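Try this one yourself first.
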């Protein structure tokens, strides 16, 4: 859950370091911040997740601070369902007041209701939707995207443009939404659906590499949305494990950077861990296994 939330907040190159020896952090990521002059600073964050029945003491935090410092991190970010002990809270405040490095940041147990209300799809995906949360916008992002796609499809029909990409993308997104909502009803969380099969790949999508581990419904929705946003006749997708490279043949509209912004709010629904613009007309996507 912490991995998905920090990605949603804008962290890049987020890496899950567990299970196994985590070198003092469970998750590692980078955060960009700019000051009023436009100077851009890239911060390295070590993110430590602690599920405790009691409060966290200072020696526990100090051990993680030492690891973060040794590995050149700018910030140690502690995410816990509990809280630091009163003594630990004092030490953290003193450390930050002295502007020592790495800085220490904490999400405490009482922070999570508001965090999850701001990321309702992530809460649903991990099976921790409270009844009052479930009625406050789950699927709202999908509704907005579907509305735009349906309007675009209607325009194509109205002006006889002959383009089917909008209605195909709307259909694929609707199928994905149906799949995820059924997951919630049956399991209380998002589940991985059936794997992609050769027979389900449309003519405009060329797929290469070992793709038999990718989820069919999310992959086809992703490809259909890419095709529509880029107005590309053909999309070439090459797989290396969970890493995919998408290339767009002669895109007629939009740019790859526009595509990134369009997918920002639905990556969790699509089971995407990361999207990186390689160059114009090419995207690297890491999909979840």
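Now uncover the answer:
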């Amino acid at each position: 859950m912490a991995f998905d939330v920090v990605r949603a907040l804008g962290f890049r190159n987020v890496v899950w370091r567990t299970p196994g020896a985590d070198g003092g952090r469970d998750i590692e990521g980078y955060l960009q911040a700019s000051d009023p002059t436009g100077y851009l600073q890239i911060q390295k964050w070590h993110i430590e997740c602690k599920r405790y029945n009691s409060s966290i003491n200072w020696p526990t935090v100090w051990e993680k601070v030492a690891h973060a410092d040794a590995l050149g991190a700018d910030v140690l970010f502690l995410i816990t369902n509990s809280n630091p002990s009163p003594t630990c809270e004092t030490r953290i405040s003193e450390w930050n007041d002295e502007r020592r490095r790495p800085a220490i940041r904490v999400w405490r147990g009482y922070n999570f209701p508001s965090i999850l209300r701001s990321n309702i799809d992530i809460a649903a995906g991990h099976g921790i939707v409270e009844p009052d949360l479930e009625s406050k916008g789950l699927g709202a992002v999908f509704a907005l995207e579907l509305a735009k796609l349906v309007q675009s499809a209607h325009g194509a029909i109205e002006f006889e443009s002959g383009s089917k990409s909008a209605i195909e993308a709307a259909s694929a997104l609707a199928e994905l939404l149906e799949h995820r909502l059924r997951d919630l009803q049956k399991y209380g969380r998002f589940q991985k659906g059936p794997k992609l099969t050769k027979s389900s790949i449309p003519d405009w999508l060329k797929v290469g590499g070992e793709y038999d581990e990718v989820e069919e419904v999310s992959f086809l929705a992703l490809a259909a949305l890419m095709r529509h946003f880029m107005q590309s006749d053909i999309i070439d997708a090459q797989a290396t494990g969970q890493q995919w490279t998408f290339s767009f043949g002669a895109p007629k509209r939009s740019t790859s950077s526009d595509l990134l912004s369009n997918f920002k709010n639905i990556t969790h629904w699509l089971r995407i861990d990361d999207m990186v613009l390689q160059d114009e007309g090419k995207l690297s996507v890491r999909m979840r296994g």
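Discussion: The radius of gyration is 21 Å. The first helix runs from residue 2 to 8.
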